[in-house]
């Protein structure tokens, strides 16, 4: 039988052989008389009575209808009858993704439903993404067989944003094309942030006093409503007075110092959450300076060797040291044979022999950034060793 959308004439024929008198033939459609026209066809020594029934415009209403042909030739006997049960195949009349056109969150799992009705036998439903068939589906059919529901287990991914998701319903018994419903995916995801150093800056040559600026590049959907800057995990605030300028997605650090060095990140916020960039380590180089809390005064007896330690902070830490000795009469460099170096520390071996050997030792350090501007100063006095920072006077003459 044809699809309901096809207008066509169907011919149903029934033959009856002989009978005396010849029978009358009638057609009933669901017990309603629709035709009683028949033809007598002689030949071959017997007579046939034939009746044809033409049905036009078959549709869904005709499913399960009954066509009955009756032949009778007298009122005293039961008529002969033959019944035809009409069965038909139909394509689906609709297909719909339930809850379509909604924004999905990346990383979340969704059970998406697609429903189709009107197919006979029940429709087969398939899911597609940009023309590629998707698996992980489950199909159920209503008790009356009229509605098919397919469930797609779908994990939204950022890469799916803008792709076309659809479901197709088709009756495999028919050659006609099926029906399709779908929508363009909108995938929302937490911001992806990245720090970029100003193009004119070389991260390996930043010194104290340099102006440094960063840009935060954020990829997010929906758009970010806030960008935050952090230094060593602590949020930065806009403060022109201290040289920290935050504007939109840019950060400017004016006149950086060694305390400015460290890890910088930027964080983008949207309705999906917050995303922090990988840290950018700002390396600020500087000339050597004296470390605080060093022993500055050494009480040394004549002909006693003292070991004076000079410690500096420097970046880079590859430093060279120079020592000089000053007294009331002269200033001389300490011989390199008396100087030892270990990293950012230097130890000088010094033995006063006369009164003129008491005075001040000056420690100068340098690295590739420059020379130490203010030396580390150590006083050598005629005394015993320091015990708990107390000078013990030596009475020896």
Any chance you could write out the topology, listing elements then pairs?
Elements: E1 9-17, E2 24-29, E3 32-35, E4 39-43, E5 46-56, E6 66-72, E7 80-85, E8 94-98, E9 104-105, E10 109-117, E11 124-129, E12 132-134, E13 137-141, E14 147-155, E15 164-170, E16 179-184, E17 187-197, E18 212-221, E19 226-231, E20 234-235, E21 244-247, E22 250-253, E23 262-270, E24 273-276, E25 280-282, E26 286-290, E27 297-300, E28 306-315, E29 320-326, E30 331-333, E31 339-342, E32 345-350, E33 359-367, E34 370-371, E35 376-382, E36 386-387, E37 390-391
Parallel strand pairs: 9-17, 27-35
Antiparallel strand pairs: 1-5, 2-3, 2-6, 4-5, 6-7, 8-10, 10-14, 11-12, 11-15, 13-14, 15-16, 17-18, 18-22, 19-20, 19-23, 21-22, 23-24, 23-25, 26-28, 28-32, 29-30, 29-33, 31-32, 33-34, 33-35, 36-37
